[in-house]
């Protein structure tokens, strides 16, 4: 059950990240289209790349938080022991 919740949260985070990435790329293209010089176009590209990187980093942070929540739930529910395993 927790695995399903984690997958659902990951999917939602991925959709949010994809939307942020798409928005950053659209903003970059709009800014580049209105740029008057090569330098302004390069700056627009750099800003777009930075926004994409930030969105991807946020996705990884969200996924890590989901894993942490799932592990924490498992530890509290099962006392840190996996059923069926003898270590």
TrEMBL record:
Basic and acidic residues bias: start-end ranges: 1-10, 26-49, 59-72
Pfam family, one: LEA_1
Biased composition annotated in UniProt, kind: Basic residues: 73-87
Source taxon at top rank: Eukaryota
Region (Disordered): 1-87
Gene Ontology biological-process entries: embryo development ending in seed dormancy
InterPro entries listed in its UniProt record: LEA_1
Protein family membership: Belongs to the LEA type 1 family.
Protein name, per record: Uncharacterized protein
Organism name: Triticum aestivum
């Amino acid at each position: 059950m927790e695995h399903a919740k984690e997958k659902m949260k990951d999917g939602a985070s991925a959709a949010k990240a994809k939307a942020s990435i798409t928005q950053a790329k659209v903003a970059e293209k709009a800014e580049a289209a209105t740029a008057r010089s090569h330098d302004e176009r390069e700056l627009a590209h750099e800003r777009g790349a930075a926004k994409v990187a930030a969105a991807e980093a946020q996705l990884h942070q969200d996924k890590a938080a989901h894993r942490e929540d799932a592990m924490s739930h498992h530890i509290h529910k099962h006392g840190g022991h996996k059923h069926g395993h003898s270590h």
